[in-house]
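Researcher: Checking consistency across runs. Here is Alkyl hydroperoxide reductase E again:
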Amino acid sequence: MTEVRQAPDSVFVPGIGQPAPEFELLNQYGEPVRLSDYRGRNVVVVFFPFAFSGICTGELCEIRDNIAAFKDSNATVLAISVDSKFAQRAYAEKERLNFDLLADFWPHGAVAQEYGVFDAASGMALRGTFIIDVSGIIRYVVVNPRGQARDFAEYRQALLALGEHQP
């Protein structure tokens, strides 16, 4: 269950069945968030280009409005962009986002690079989503072209399929 619609040339995007690269970033409150702290839960890692931009706001507000669907699937959402924790906090407050926004600010885009979704030419993350299972293994990947929103229904489908394969 993987679909990579677009990835930069010569960039490695971790694939299905591989361990998710570990990371620790600050959330919008300045608190450290480590991927491995979520072992035992599914994690939906959502890379987005920039806070306050139109498509990103639409996508993240759709997640906000449907957060119960993630919780029902034993999933935590971690949204990541290259914005600072200060921008992330202002954005989360303005849009009433009820999940962690993580700042991949410095070194600039380092986590996005690890996941193969950093566009060095524009200095931003591409729209990449990675669903990671309870053991830290990547089970779903999608990278959308610039300007194309991700389909929320695909997240639900991937999480439902994942639930069928977990104890």
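Researcher: Does this match what you'd expect to see?
Model: One thing to look at in this run: Confidence is low (pLDDT under 50) at residues 1-10.
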